[in-house]
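Teaching assistant's notes for section 4

Start the section by putting this record on the projector. Ask students to predict, before seeing the second block, whether TetR family transcriptional regulator will look compact or extended. Collect guesses on the board.
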Amino acid sequence: MGNTRDEKRAALRSRLIEAAEDQIARHGIGGLKARAVTTQAGCALGALYTAFEDLDMLILHVNARTLERLGSALKSALGEGQGTPAQALQAMARAYVDFACANRALWIALFEHRLPEGVETPDWHKQDHAVLIEVLIGPLSQLRPDLAQEALVLRARTTFAAVHGVVLLALQGRFVGVPMAQLHAEVAALVETMTRGSERGQAETAR
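Reveal the predicted structure now:
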């Protein structure tokens, strides 16, 4: 059977996503150009806009691929870090730092990309981001079984934000950022501090 119109469109979308992913990895999201993407994908400039609504939607699909890989890395670390909740959190923190360092431009694109004012992020892409919080719920619920689900989600968001902030400042080379040589150690120290705080909070609640 020959290719149908839908199959050809799917193949085009795949080539464009792969080309955009490569362009972002090499030049950063700020250096992404539609013509460079379509040239690499082997299609006309106009073909991009038949496959995607615009360049922003193409970037969302690249970010979705990055989130899928990041989620897999965190889940794998969670599985390998079986033991105490603290060990699981440390394993995921190491995996997060490793992924960010190995995929710097694509990782930064996840958080730097902004849709035009008035354009809502599609629900499917919001769900893609959920993995960053969901993987933390299990270990945190073991540390703080007294917390309700809503409070656990909030604690997971806070935990993620704390680690992410340290990594982002370091990778951006900010003067207040942690030196790259000490990034793993400082993230581990941060997670240990948060873990001990959660353990003390649970002990006080149990009194």
